[in-house]
Amino acid sequence: MTHRINDNGIDRDMTAEEETALDAVRAEMETQAAAADDLLRTRASARAKLVDLGLSETEIAALVG
User: Fold this and answer.
1) Which residues are registered as beta bridge partners of 7?
2) In total, how many domains does the chain have?
3) What are the DSSP E strand ranges found in 1-65?
4) pLDDT, tens only, 28-39
5) How many CA atoms lie within 13 A of 58 on its CB side?
6) Do the beta carbons of residue 2 and residue 14 sit within 8 Å?
7) Is the Cβ–Cβ distance between 3 and 22 less than 8 Å?
């Protein structure tokens, strides 16, 4: 699929190099989004485990901020 780009007011198809760069940026964004989601799930799991151990929200906040 060819993407369009506006280059100084002129609409044109992206070059192969621009398409490759766009694909690389999108892949990196997906990787970063997945890592952020994993981190959020890990933090939620850790907080739940601390609650299960009987810590109060105040104690948890003191530990993890």
Assistant:
1) 10
2) 1
3) 4-7, 10-13
4) 999 999 999 999
5) 0
6) yes
7) yes
